Amino acid sequence: MTSLPKIGKPATNALQIIGITSLEQVSSLDKKTLSNMHGVGPKAIAILEKALAEEGLAFKQLTIENHSATDFAVLCSLDCDNAPKKRLIRDFLIAAVAGNQTTLTDLLTHHFRFILPGDRMVDSLGTFIDLTHREKIAVSVLEIHSIITHGKEGAAHGTITTKKGRKLYFSVIVLFSGNQKEALITQVTAFAIKDK
């Protein structure tokens, strides 16, 4: 493994928070993802790009379409091209964290229900969209570790890293309106744990 070049403390810390400590790991990221990470600026990206080229490596090409509309980095190894419901869950997570009303309206049924066990239940699309705006946090990185689907159900888990370096570990259970691949999301039950 090739060590990271000197890119400055803020950029180095931002990468270390998500477990990136080598150039080979950097090559799994795209420039947009890096530029959205709090602490990683154009100078650090230029230094990394030069170091990658010297090692015969390059940044990954951007593959997530709606990722460009976020102001935070999205790390997700799932391309989802042959799995429409995985793509729906991925896009829901990104839109919910970003508070993207248009995408949420496209992905969720009108009678959408959001359940946070022990805390609250939201039983309409409009109320959920209001909630995403009211409780929006300054996110640096959204990592989606895995997504699984089967029939009318799906699940995902991952980590949200705030711009202050705090972590929120989440898991969601998703119900779709039907078995069809174009079925919308009708319910999400979410579990979250904040780091200390």
From TrEMBL:
The lineage of its organism: Bacteria, Bacillati, Bacillota, Bacilli, Lactobacillales. It comes from Enterococcus wangshanyuanii. It comes from the Bacteria. This is DNA-binding protein. Keywords: DNA-binding. One of its GO terms (molecular function) is DNA binding.
